[in-house]
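#onboarding

Welcome to the new folks! Below is a worked example of what a typical request in this channel looks like: someone posts a single protein sequence, and someone else replies with the predicted structure as tokens. Don't worry about understanding the tokens yet, we'll cover that in week two.

Example request:
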Amino acid sequence: MADSSKVLSLVYDDSGSIIYLNVDGAVQENFPQKFVKLENPNRIYFDINDSILIGPKQQIVFDKSNIKEVRLAQFSTNPNVVRAVITYDENFDTSKIKLVNLNGNVLVQAGANKLSNEYFNKIYDEAPEPHTYNGIVANSQVIKKVALPEVKQEGSAAALEEINKAFSASTLNNSDGKTYDSIVSVDISSDLKLRTKYFINGYYIKNGGLLVSGLGQMTTAKMFTLDYPNRVVIDLPNTYVDKKIRNKELLMCPDASCKDRAKIGQFEFNKARIVVTTETPEKYIPVYSSDAQSMLLINADKLNHTTLSAVSSNIQQAYVKKINSKTAELILQFTAPVVHSILRDDKSLNMYLFNVKSYNEPELIKTFNNTAYKNMTLSLLPQIGVKSTLKVSKDDVIQISQSIDGKAIKILYTKSATQQTQPVEKTDAPKKPPIKNKVVIDPGHGGSDYGAIREGINEKDITLDMSQRVASILKSKGYKVALTRTDDIYLGLQERCDYTEAENPEIFVSIHVNSAVATEPSGLETHYYHENSIKLAEIIQKHLVKEIDSKDRGILKSKFYVINHTDVPAVLVETGFLSNADERAELVTDKRKQATAKAIAEGIMEYLKKK
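Example response:
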């Protein structure tokens, strides 16, 4: 018998009229098909069969809406049934309420807004102005924490009767004149000016980090550090903190030698602030859950990546859309919900996608090129996941949203006005002619950027070995050779282009190993972009096919960054597929490496002699 589904949280969105039940475990067979309508008071409910509610009953009270309340509780324990009840105004048209199966999670659409799997909630925001929210607004002044009656006899009629009482009108009246069935109410200050999107009621140490959780939609601002004493600070706009946990200091670990300590407080009437006092503030990173309901603030040295998610994910697709002359958005879609971290400094935006195991680099490069994201790079970090880096300036504004199912991330990147109007430096000095018979060889990837990985074999190691062999052959024939890297170090794509420009060669050749999701593809490819590189690509591909017994996949026009941003004839060589088991076995041998190096070197020499 399959395990029961776990209903983890009740989430509301105040701009999209959407209520979301995060469910761990498939509910395809037990997905609620319809509502049951009741009166006195007017309400409808639906059940999630074979499911267990994790934690206490949850209740959200709405203001400025025909929907008044949403309540979630364990209706029965034998069988396991979770019940959601929606209370509404007498004149409300219940046909507007729709149940949607969103990848096994339950989503209630309470209005006429269009819904899709690309529905996003903001999780990171650098915009300077405060935001207002329209539509359904959860009123923080009446949010209640509710406890279930104790079930003394599992499955008995008496127990069911007690549970059902939680779904009927109560005689408990609040000072605002409204009636709720809360057992424990939260004291919310009456001077709260704005409605908050997030209510923090959980704050404790877990796995060596500070775990913050609550109700609603979490959004964070840019993390920063302060001195005297050293501390790391992260603000949560539109957030209200339960008074019972404010300003309580927690040690970050049980070890007596540990001096790191954390506090959370209500920094402004609608902004929470988390402060960790530590000697190493630069090591702290925020890790966001896939449902945007919680955040783990932790020293990266103590982070156990295997505990973050039991589900592996891959980057499935990417889309870039230009909004205007200053702003562009990038959407990354994943095969499963993503646990991630966002780190922003004055020069870059870094995201760690902890449970992402693979991505199609050529396709992503094609997507990024000629867009505001053209300098974004991705690196595969073993035992960690994928790191993405976007070069930005200090005054640029970044906003990041996450889809409601956790399977997509949207980055909204707005360039600063100074960056937009900054004139491009021009020089009238004539460009020096290339150094005759000089070649720049670029071993793909390196350092933290492993490239393709299969069965413990790293692309970066193969490309460096092949490149050094090409350089050795060319030097023995009297050619001048410069390598962008001679060791296992990380180099950005623009750094490789800048190095090439400084070396002023006649040609540029980047060496890579291909990979694919499928295991069948194999063969040799040579890529070019500018017209002045076609002949070089044709000659090198001819020699590769001559020397190596593998499929001729031809020459291809591609927007790889390093060949797109290099003025001299430039090509990128894909020397085989690491994802193909047979070809992978050959690529690691000295025979295949030397044959590949010989082919590339002979292609280079033929081209330079004919030039």
